Amino acid sequence: MSAQHHNLWSRVRGRYIRDTARFLFRRPFKIDTRVPFISFTFDDFPRSALHTGGAILKQYGVRGTYYASLGLMGKQAPTGEMFLPDDLKKVLEEGHELGCHTFGHCDSAETKTGVFEASIKENQSALDKLAPGISFKTFSYPISPPRMRTKRRISKYFVCCRGGGQNFNVGTADLNYLGAYFLEKTRDSPEVVENLIDRNRQARGWLILATHDVCGHPTPYGCTPEFFEAIVRGAVRSGARILPVIQAWEALRSGSSELRIPGREEESVDNHVESGRRIGSSRL
């Protein structure tokens, strides 16, 4: 295959994966709220996301969600120095949420569904040893949109799963593939994010903001403390309820409902999560 044909095939395949992730095996969830919601999330869990990013959140009286791949613990990764065991304890003690990101930081598009599912189970098993009694409730897809079979298979393990998409959730969202906005994509243009926060306010939606490291010299996947604080400050000023993903879901669920898909038997979120794997998130 020539380089030109290979590039064309890669683009077609990428579009196919993005579209199937977006449109197939949905778990509809109606967002009906009088106030907007915002969640701050950190993928991979670099130490700076907690010690710098978390300190900024604390300064404004809000909390976030840290999506951890426990196989990266203590390592140096493309997103910086990864978390240590004590950081897991600190996350939970400070009221943040600890979410799942697979054990091996598996590429959601390139990893076979069975291997991907095994990595989710391995991540929970590792957490059982580090923090008995603690378990994951929400999930973030690493690197890429998921294969359609992967999206379908892992939905039973979590109350909701987060992707990307550079937008907020409004109207009828998909709990199997919630949209998020990665801050590093526009880290030199805070006004773009401020505009998004304002549009979320007007639409009374659920904006999930994501990034990785937060430090003075960020990787290509992170942002500076100054930029991050400006975004947190803008989020607070917007009047949105700012909560970790699991708490936002719980609050929205109290005023919304999952929509049944005609012709398909649906279990309640609590029941199907329990049947897939013990899922919960408690403080240490």
Beta-strand portion reads: 15-25%
Work out the helicity level.
40-55%
Question: What is the C-level CATH assignment?
Answer: Alpha Beta
CATH superfamily (homologous) name: Glycoside hydrolase/deacetylase
How many independent structural domains?
Answer: 1
Which fold does the CATH topology refer to? TIM Barrel
SSE order, one letter for each helix or strand: HEEHEEEHEHEHEEEHEHEHH
Given helix and strand content, the structural type is alpha/beta
Shape type: globular
Structure commentary:
By secondary structure, this protein is of the alpha/beta class. 40% of the residues lie in helices and 17% in strands. The protein is built from nine helices and twelve strands. Strand 4 and strand 5 (80-81) form a beta hairpin. The protein is globular. Residues 257-270 and 277-284 have low confidence and may be disordered.
In short:
The chain is an alpha/beta fold. Helix content is 40%, strand content 17%.
